[in-house]
Amino acid sequence: MTDTDNIIAKNYNSISQSAQNEITRLSRLAAMVSWTRLAIVVIACVGTWWLWGDTGAVTALIAICVVLFLVLVKLHNHLFSALEMQRALKQVAADNLRRIDLDLDGLDGGDEYIDTHHPYSYDLDLFGPQSLFSLINTTATHSGRERLARNLQNPENVIPDIELRQEAVASLAAMPHFMIRMQALGIVARNAGKETGTSGGAASLQPVRLKWWQRVAMYLFPSAILVLIILALAGFDVAIYIETVAVASILTAAAGSKTVGRLHTDVERVVNRISIYHDLLNEIEQTEFKSPLLQQLQRRLGTGDEKSSDITRKLSRLLSNLDQRYNWLSYILLNTLFQWDYRQMQNVAKWAERYAGKLDEWDDVLGNIDELCALATFSFHNPGYIFPIIDHEGKVIIEAKQLGHPLIAHDRCVCNDVSTLSAGNFMVVTGANMAGKSTYLRTVGVNYLLALVGAPVFATKIIISPAALFTGLRTTDSLSDGESYFFAELRRLQTIVTRATAGERMLIILDEILKGTNSADKQKGSLALVGKLVGMNIAGIIATHDLVLGTLADRFPGRVFNRCFEAEIDGNNLHFDYTLHPGIARNLNAYFLMQHMGIV
After folding, report:
1. Could you tell me which residues come within 8 angstroms of residue 119 by beta carbon, excluding any fewer than 6 positions away?
2. pLDDT at 263
3. Which pTM was predicted?
4. CB-hemisphere CA count at 13 Å for 573?
C-alpha cells in the first residue's frame, strides 16, 4: 500500500469509527424511545381502568397518550433512519477499504453480465469474481449499476462525449463526501428491500381512487369522534357513543385494507427507491457543478418552480404515513380517529397524478450521476492514475508509457509501454510461457476501455483515439451450440475480418492465433491473417509463441514491429523480469520447466 493509499485508508477508518460511535448512541436513544412508547400504552390502559366512569378524565388521558405516542413514533422513525444511515456509512468504508487492498471477494461482480461471446468483456475479466466491475462498482442505484455495466460493454466512441465524462469524473473525484453519501443511501435502500431492480415509472403507478363511501367515511368518522370528545370534555356522558363510533370507524377502515395494501406495495415498488434520495437530490440541486455534463444533468431535475428533492420528500412522507399501518397499535389508533389509510390513498393519488411522469427522468439523472460517481470513486482511490489525452486527429489509436493493470497491486505491478499504434500498425509480442504476455494484453485492453468510458488509467502517459475494441484471448468451445474450440476461434476471427473489411476502426488484441490447429497450419493461417489486416483501418497487438510471426516486421516494415518478454535461464534458475523489450524472444522455457517438474 502506497503513502497515498494509507491516507485514503485513514479517511475511511475515521468514517467507520465515527459511524460506530453514532450507531452506539442512536441505538441507546431508540431503545429509550421504544420503552417510553410501551410505558405510555401501559399508562393509558392502567389510567383508563383507574378512571373508568369519569368519561372526561378518560378521554383527556387517552387523547394525551395518543399525541405523545404519535410524537414518539415519529421520533423513533427518525432515529431508525439515522441509525440505518450510520450502518451504511460503516459498510461503505469497509467495502472501499477492501477495494483499495484489492480484496474483492464477495463484492458485486455483475455475474449476470458475463458473456463469452462479447467482443472483449469475457477476455478482459470485466465481470465476475475479482473483476474490474467488482473493483469499480460503487453504484448506489440499480439504474446506475446498469449504466456502468452497459458503458463498460459499449463505451463511448465520440471524442466530445469522452472528454465531457472525463471532466465530470475529475470534478466528482474532488467531492468524496458526496460520493460516500451516494453509496450509503444505496445501501440503505437495498437493506430496506426498496431497491427493486426496476425503474417503474408513471405507467406502473396506478393511483387508486376512493369509492364514495370511503370518501364519506374519511370525513364523517373523524368529525363525529371530535364532536363526541368535545361533549365528553364538557361533562356529557357519551362514552357509549364514542365506543360505537370508534368500532364503526375501524371496521370501515378495515373494509378497504386489501386495496390500501396493494397500493402500498405498488408505491414502494415503483417510487420508493426514488423517494429515499430526496436528500441526495437536494445536494445535487444545491451543488455548483463546474462540469458541463453535471450541469446539464442538474437542469433536468425538478418541475416548474418545484424542486425534485421537495417533491420526493413529499412522497417519502406519504410512504412513511402508509408504513404506520404495519404497526397494529398505530393502525387501530390512526384509522379509528382519522380514517388514516383512506387519507393516504387520496394523498398518493394526488401526488401520482401530478408527478409520476417525472420519475423515469429523475431516475435516469440519478443513474447517470451515480455511474459517474462510481468512476470518480475509482479515481479518488487511485490519485496517481491519469486521464488520457484524446487525439482529435485520430492518428494514434493508443500510445502509453508505464501502463499497469488496475487489478494488480501497485507494489507488485510491472508497468510497460505501448509503442504508438495507428491504423494499419501491428505489434507482435513473443515470449516464453509465464513471461507476462497475457497480462500485458489484458493491461492494454482494460486501460483502453477505461479511457473510452472517461475514467483515469494506470499509466504515466497515454494517448488514445476511439476505436472498437475486440479481443481474442480466451476462446471457449460450446457444447450447447455444437461448436468446437477451433470453430469458435474461427468465428471470432471472421467477425474481425468482416468488420474491418466494412471499414470499421478497431483495436484488436489477440493471443495465440489458431491455437486449435497444427503448427504448420497455424503459421500459414496467422501470417495470412495479419497480412490481410495490415493496411486496414485497425491497429492490433498479437501475442504468440511462434517466432515465425516475427518475420512479419520484415514483410511490412514500418507497419509491423516486434516486442518480446524474455525468460532468463541461469543454470537451474528461471527468472522473469516481466518487462517488454524490443525484438523477438530468444529464450523459451517449456522444456526447461518439464525437466524440473520431472515430466520428461
Report:
1. 468, 469, 470, 471, 495
2. 65
3. 0.81
4. 4
